[in-house]
Please model this.
Amino acid sequence: MKFQRIFCVFSPLYWTLTYLRNKAYDTGLYSSTSFTTPTICVGNITVGGTGKTPHVEYICSLLQDTFRTAILSRGYKRKTKGYLLASPLTTVDELGDEPYFLYKKLQKTNVAVCEKRVLGVTKLLQDNPTIQAIILDDAFQHRAIKSGLNIVLIDYNRPIWNDCVFPGGMLREGTYALERAHSIIITKCPNNLTNTEMEMWKRKLHITKQTLFFTTIKYTSIYEAESKKQHDIPTILSSKHILLVTGIAQPKPMYTFISQYCKDITHLNFADHHIYTNDDYALILQQYKTYRTTIVTTEKDAPKILEITRNQLPIYVLSIGITFLNDSETEFQSLIQTHISK
Model:
């Protein structure tokens, strides 16, 4: 907290620099490239997890049976550079944990990574000229590409009106940036969110032209990491001891969910996009031998953990999904499908 107060001194400078950069794009001083193939950007204006990956998965699941769909991601912390189109031989190290998870989960969706989004879309369309929809994963600040539909996610537990820009806060740019959004989703909401609270969010965010949605997290299934065999969630999570292993930005909701079933939980909480090592394996193995524990992890972490454990430990994967509140799911689906069908 002390260091954060020190860094707040630099936040006005960062705000000014990002504001001037945005103005350069808004006025045409910097150019943006658009594509005839419909694009949807799913991003945020904060650092850290807002539940972006399950929302990208939801959109692709909605589209992939009707439209030839692709995802373009940066591939954060991958060990490769430049453009790469995922194939059955591609590893998690080459693709990055989030796009690798999406590639494995969405069998009918093409997945590619590239730091430069314009180059990435260009090459993606060269490789697959029949693609009808491209989801730009975490590209809201990539102004060099102009998306046809900008969806911005905001974590319910981190209201942006109580925050400031980096490095003193968690905002990537000022809240004025929401003007570029076509739709805003408040994520990780409680199931019992009231209409009064929804109206408060709309007022605080100064919503005028954007559509506003509210979603909550749901844990949909649990399965064995290696065999993919499905199990009953209460049966697995009611174990005497759980070893929860995570390398995600916001693991608290998962811990809270598991604690409904098991009161004795050891949590190995690594940083987001953590690259697991042999030392991590030794720690996991020690916990397993000590407690004869049930090991649970996320879909994003599972491939990386399997790689270091060499499939020698029983590991369960807890799947995550989203639910739209206030009977708004049909409206959101219509928004997505109408944009792609234009």
Summary: The chain has two domains: 2-217+323-341, 218-319.
